[in-house]
Specification:
Blueprint (H helix, E strand, L loop, with lengths): L1 E6 L11 H6 L1 H14 L3 H7 L2 H4 L2 H18 L7 E4 L3 H8 L5 H21 L2 E7 L3 H10 L4 E8 L2 E7 H13 L4 E4 L12 H12 L9 E3 L6 E2 L2 H10 L5 E2 H10 L2 E7 L4 H10 L4 E5 L3
Parallel strand pairs: 1-2, 1-10, 2-7, 4-9, 10-11
Antiparallel strand pairs: 3-5, 3-6, 4-5, 7-8
Helix pairs in contact: 2-5, 2-7, 5-6, 5-7, 7-10, 8-9, 12-13
Length: about 300
């Protein structure tokens, strides 16, 4: 039975995140203090004691989730993955944990990504919405029929797709989804249209930073969001990581491919338990799924 380690994305943060880890594990404490230096502000103060609102600030959220996940993986004595994957931002955590990027380089990239995404959100009003209980094909068809720009952005599990686009187009799509039988079509409280072409300005900024970053061969296959396929090739990993900002997250497809390749045990590393629920819906009752947020 192969072990798959998975890493959550933005939205899994919570006040007090990684505090136990920092207080009880010297290895994790060193990494988190190093992060404070690299970022130029004490992100740990906000992670441990900040309000939910303070944690939602883009320059905080993405590095905070990344730090919690990577500190766990790097300081966990039993971290021996056969494969890894991360949801959106979590792909950076997965790559770093598997040795494809150095911690310092990856943290800088995550910070640049967060700032660039925030700026892209300010250019054009945009949003996302969760569509529950419609087939993927129907969601795609309805998005294509809308008058403005709206596309599928996250294939989270069968029957749960997040769409992304211009505010009016997303609202129009939600009405059409409900009329077509969706159980729910819920506009999300997010800053913009992530994983769509509206993130192109952020992709351009990230491209420059990624080009300057050194990528290495990871210790195991990384199943990437853009293709849902495994890779250990640094050049392929690099290209997919850049394309990820403007492409849908194929999480359902990634998990199904991991299962087909022999994964029988999944461990979610980081804050929250969102991925555990999604994997259970995708993989059924016969697989072992656990989560770890402290050591």
């Amino acid at each position: 039975m192969k072990k798959a380690y998975v890493f959550p994305g933005q939205g899994s943060q919570f006040p007090g995140m990684a505090k136990d880890l920092y207080e009880n594990n010297p290895c994790a404490k060193d990494m988190l203090e190093k992060a404070n230096e690299i970022l130029g502000f004490r992100i740990t103060d906000i992670m441990f004691n900040g309000t939910p609102e303070e944690l939602k600030a883009t320059k905080v959220t993405q590095p905070a989730v990344f730090l919690h996940s990577v500190a766990l993986a790097k300081c966990y004595n039993d971290f021996h993955p056969d494969m890894v994957a991360g949801h959106s931002l979590g792909e950076f955590s997965a790559l770093t944990s598997a040795g494809a990027m150095d911690f310092e380089d990856a943290l800088k990239l995550v910070s640049i990504r967060a700032m660039a995404m925030q700026k892209a959100c300010e250019i054009k009003p945009s949003t996302m919405a969760a569509i529950i209980a419609l087939p993927n094909e129907k969601v795609e068809e309805i998005c294509a029929s809308c008058s403005g720009f709206v596309v599928p952005a996250n294939y989270n599990c069968d029957g749960q797709v997040v769409i992304s686009g211009e505010v009016d187009a997303v609202n129009e799509a939600c009405e059409k989804m409900k009329a077509a039988g969706a159980k729910r079509a819920l506009v999300l409280q997010v800053g913009g249209a992530f994983h769509s072409q509206l993130m192109e300005p952020a992709r351009e900024v990230l491209a420059e930073a990624i080009e300057k970053t050194s990528f290495k061969t990871p210790v195991c296959s990384v199943y990437q969001n853009v293709t849902a396929l495994p890779s250990t090739d640094p050049e392929v990993i690099k290209a997919n990581l850049l394309t990820q900002l403007t492409s849908p997250v194929k999480w359902t497809q990634s998990v199904k491919n991991m299962l087909a390749d022999g994964a029988g045990y999944f461990m979610e590393m980081g804050p929250g338990n969102v991925l555990q629920g999604l994997i259970r819906k995708i993989g059924g009752a016969d697989i072992t799924i656990e989560g770890i947020s402290s050591l």
